[in-house]
Amino acid sequence: MASLAGLLKDQGYRVTGSDQNVYPPMSTYLAQARIDVQNGFNAQHLADRPDLVIIGNAVSRGNPEAEAVLDGKIPYLSFPQALGKFLIGARQSIVVTGTHGKTTTTALAAWVLKRAGLNPGFFVGGVPLNFGSGWDPGESDHVVLEGDEYDSAFFDKGPKFLHYRPQSVILTSVEFDHADIYRDLDHLKEAFRSLARLIPASGLLVACYDYPAVREVVEVGSCRIVSYGDDENCDWTVRSVRTEGRRSYFDPCFRKISEGTVELGAIGRHNVKNALGVYVLARELGMDRSKLLEGFASFSGVKRRQEFKGESRGVLVIDDFAHHPTAVAETIKAVKDAFTGRRVWAVFEPRSNTSRRNIFEREFALSLSLADRVVVSGLHQPEKIPEAERLSVERVVESINQSAGHEQGIVINGADNIAAHVVAHAGAGDIILVMSNGAFDGVQEKILSGLAS
Length: 453
Hints:
The protein is an alpha/beta fold.
């Protein structure tokens, strides 16, 4: 929503907004863009009767501003409808979607295609460090969008990506998530099938076949499918993957024939796979390989995705958005591979609607146990999850410690207490990997501040 506000202001509209508990990086971005944000929701915020109200999916019936919109018959759109109207239009839409990696992959695709000369518009649900904002109108007839499977608005419970009129799609993964929206994996797969059905016969679906559910959902499509992944029968695979410092190197191979080494400004096998998806898309769009290499090498990542926040007393703090057990595991492995021999702390906050439920209790214990030390906070707003469905952080940590045979993990409530514990027990060379899909009460900065003082 913040990025959409910036896009609309750049187009010449007067934009204001309302929200609860705005936090960085988006609060900082909005302030820099000089977009006024009202704290909380009040019908008086609409007293000047705007020409259009865009209603985010966090807003429910009963919200005073939503009710004022309906009572006053003020024109309104959902967030994805607005993107279709103000950004996509008649352009060729490239949608990047999947349970994992879509923000980073979208940002990477936009950057690589820009540096290669295509100069597409883009919209991503984060702040790509190469661009400084999550959107750009671009100067070509292509636009790259992050395709979110979450619902659109209280008046449209369908996935956002169904509004994006895809010509091409990168599908990175399909696993169960968003337990507040989807009943089970089969329900979620039907959403992705709906997307596959939308791609015209002349279109393209670049699909990661490492996920069985991906193979299932793409079968309903009418377009050309190009597969990538670890299976040697995929159209595209990678080999010779290695990490040097904060960079990765890999050889993309088309039907087992290498196209030469690609340097990537990111770490982790999962990011190499995301990069392969972008590489495949670009090659399928007819782009020369030589024009792609600089974009991959100069990619700087996205805020809150393996973001290096700072180092003090020899302790490095990394911030990441991981909140699904698969993403948690891949992120920890990426950091350990990049910093061999250094002790890695996983500091995790169960905050998303799925991670606060006990669906993945066992999986979280297995994922977090990949770190050398584990700190798990209490659930964020546990009262919003029925008690019988809540994740037990105590059981997660107990399982970690039983498997390790020693106290590898600990439960600590409150960002101040977590920061104090880390500062007291971390040593030079340690890496503190903080994972949450929310602000986590600024624990990253509190750790760095505590180390510095």
